[in-house]
Design a protein that fits this description.
Shape: globular
Helix content: 25-40%
Protein name: enoyl-[acyl-carrier-protein] reductase (NADH)
GO molecular function, one term: enoyl-[acyl-carrier-protein] reductase (NADH) activity
GO biological process, one term: fatty acid biosynthetic process
Pathway: Lipid metabolism; fatty acid biosynthesis
InterPro entries: Enoyl-ACP_Rdtase_NADH, SDR_fam
């Protein structure tokens, strides 16, 4: 067993593991008696180990039992703690998260989890929402939402204007360039943002795609126009291809990318229309292909999280998100509310070294709803 120094990140401390703090020492003495304690920190010698064990056995007899698993999240300078566990340590890593425009969506939750693990956070915000987002940050409106488990506030190193529908400035129609919502903004196409990040920071380690838009999402597929369908594909799936295409050259080897998908990619969700189900299916297919190509080209891992419904501001555009949340609660194996931070924590794991062999995967974070074949709240089962 090794006593490792505390790290920034999410630490899982198991029942037979020990946590040393300035106030208390938790340890299973039955475990101690079966293993030689090896201490990684300088200043601990074999003789001091023996003295430590002897004194510890007097204060904490072998009958002490521990059954809980403690998850601890830290950021920056951690508390003075030495602990067993598997750390999610992203210190020294830089993440670019595309699609953060408020403090109540999955993109924000992922940013917080990565920050809690020690990563430096850059975000790309849709140009028309940029001013409101930056103003809210500056005035402290997000301060409570920014609070990390150690009490500090998540720091966003830089906010970049981004519209991932356009790869280069040449792709932008004149009416969009002249639109007042884009007035004053520059360098916001995918290529330009990647170049700006390179100029500012040289490289990144983590790329997160938290983007989706379907202008005709409320229309059934049979009523969706070609333009609406292709717009959904462009904004919700090809945008990930484009981001990785332009950011891959500045990603450090061993890095990771992540996107967000939805169960409509493989199951019929009436009302989730306008080509959005097709866009999510394309995103999942692209995840597998890109995992091969980016893996071979840059040793970059590519995964996607299939998240359950969340009542975010963006999701409310669907029009019946509250019903989707109620349905999930009634029918999922885990009958509880799905929290955004649960998706964030999964993201932190997937982009961390702990998931170094995981790529090309769709990871479900939906309380298990994807496993169900029957709706338990159906009148057939309730009458």
């Amino acid at each position: 067993m090794v006593v490792a120094s505390a790290v920034a990140g999410l630490q899982v401390v198991g029942a037979n593991h020990c946590a040393f703090t300035s106030r208390r020492v938790f340890m299973s003495m039955t475990t101690i008696s079966q293993f030689n304690l090896k201490v990684a920190s300088p200043g601990f010698t074999s003789s001091s180990n023996a003295f430590f064990l002897k004194s510890l056995s007097k204060r904490h007899p072998p009958s002490v039992k521990h059954s809980r698993v403690i998850t601890r999240a830290m950021s920056g300078e951690t508390e003075k703690t030495l602990a067993y566990g598997l750390p999610i340590d992203l210190r020294g890593k830089r993440a670019f998260i595309a699609g953060v425009a408020d403090d109540n969506g999955y993109g924000w939750a992922i940013a917080k989890a990565l920050a809690a693990a020690g990563a430096e956070i850059l975000v790309g915000t849709w140009v028309p929402a940029l001013n409101i987002f930056e103003t809210s940050l500056r005035r402290g409106k997000f301060d409570e939402s920014r609070r990390l488990p150690n009490g500090s506030l998540m720091e966003i190193a830089k906010v970049y204007p981004l519209d991932a529908v356009y790869d280069t400035l040449e792709d932008v129609p004149e009416d969009v360039k002249a639109n007042k919502r884009y007035a004053g903004a520059s360098n916001w196409t995918v290529k330009e943002v990647a170049e700006s990040v390179k100029n500012d920071y040289e490289s990144i380690d983590i790329l997160v795609h938290s983007l989706a838009n379907g202008p005709e999402v409320t229309k059934p597929l049979l009523e969706t126009s070609r333009r609406g369908y292709l717009s959904a594909i462009s904004a919700s799936s090809y945008s990930f291809v484009s981001l990785l295409q332009h950011f891959l050259p500045i990603m450090n080897q061993g890095g990771a990318t992540l996107s967000l998908t939805y169960i409509a990619s493989e199951r019929t969700i009436p009302g989730y229309g306008g080509g959005m189900s097709s866009a999510k299916a394309a995103l999942e297919s692209d995840t597998r292909v890109l995992a091969f190509e980016a893996g071979r080209k840059g040793k970059i891992r590519v995964n996607t999280i299939s998240a359950g419904p969340l009542g975010s501001r963006a999701a409310k555009a669907i029009g019946f998100i509250e019903k989707m949340i109620d349905y999930s609660y009634a029918n999922a194996p885990l009958q509880k509310e799905l929290r955004a931070e649960e998706v964030g924590n999964t993201a932190a794991f997937l982009v961390s070294p702990l998931a170094s062999a995981v790529t090309g995967s769709v990871v479900y974070v939906d309380n298990g709803l994807n496993t169900m074949g029957l709706a338990l709240d159906s009148p057939r089962f309730t009458t």
